[in-house]
Amino acid sequence: MSHFTITTVENERGGSAHLIHTEHVNWVLLRDDSGVTLIDGGYPKQVDDVIASVREIGAQPGDIRAALVTHAHVDHIGGLSRLANRYAFPVHLDPVEVSHARREHLQQATPKSLAKLAYRPRVLRWMAEIVALGGLDTTGIPNAEPFTLSADGSLDLPGRPVPWSAHGHTDGHSAYLVAGGRVLVSGDALVTGHGITAHVGPQCIHPVFHHDEAANRETLRALAERERLSGTAVEFLFPGHGEVHRGSVADAVAAALRG
């Protein structure tokens, strides 16, 4: 039985982008004639769901040419080390985030910091569920490498993703513009829901999860400005948590900063 839903956005230049939404975290698949790019990889015990989602879009795990990472928290890289070893694909991140992925240091909420939220109605259930998914695993990706931009600012990977710097949630957090500019994969810089809140819609994730909350808010303003300067509004937001959001980055950022 599938534990995920898929939202697909076609790239008018060819290929497609797919948001794989699960109750606790999301990942993204980019597919074109050259193969598949995986963005993020869920919790450690979601490996089978990641594989199933690749097959659900009509591809095979062996078609994955590389994985990209928005940031190196366990809910986004937990399954990647296992998948990368099994299917022999590289894992790339913002250069600043590489040491985090390799676990040379760790910027992540701890059980102690989360315990301060235990009075909230949803938190204890959420904690139990993410622990069951491997949320306490501190395994990194020892062979993680920085991505290298092409002359046009994109990456030479299936789907031609374009990294947008989004530092703050972690020091080297990255967003990715995909589907020919129709979709922004926002990671945890900008989400639309989370297991510890009932609020649905564009929002900043709870401060306990941010390494630098103030920097993340500045990042959101910078993302909206980058969209404005590009002259073309993004149509969809693929967040790290929550459902797909239809609308521009500017509108989503405005809603999140108001909230």
Structure description:
With 259 residues, the protein is an alpha/beta fold. The protein has one domain: 4-Layer Sandwich (Metallo-beta-lactamase, Chain A). Helix content is 27%, strand content 21%. The protein has eight helices and twelve strands. A seven-stranded mixed beta sheet has the order 1-2-3-4-5-6-7, with helices on one face. It has a five-stranded mixed beta sheet with strand order 8-9-10-11-12, with no helix packed on it. Helix 1 links the parallel strand 4 and strand 5. Helix 7 runs antiparallel to helix 8. The longest helix is centred in the last third of the chain and has 18 residues, at 213-230. It is globular and about 50 Å long. The termini are far apart. The mean pLDDT is 96.
Please write out the topology.
Blueprint: E1 5-10, E2 16-21, E3 26-32, E4 35-39, H1 47-56, E5 64-68, H2 74-77, H3 80-87, E6 91-93, H4 98-101, H5 111-115, H6 123-132, E7 145-146, E8 162-165, E9 174-178, E10 183-187, H7 213-230, E11 236-239, E12 245-246, H8 249-258
Parallel strand pairs: 4-5, 5-6, 6-7, 10-11
Antiparallel strand pairs: 1-2, 2-3, 3-4, 8-9, 9-10, 11-12
Helix pairs in contact: 7-8
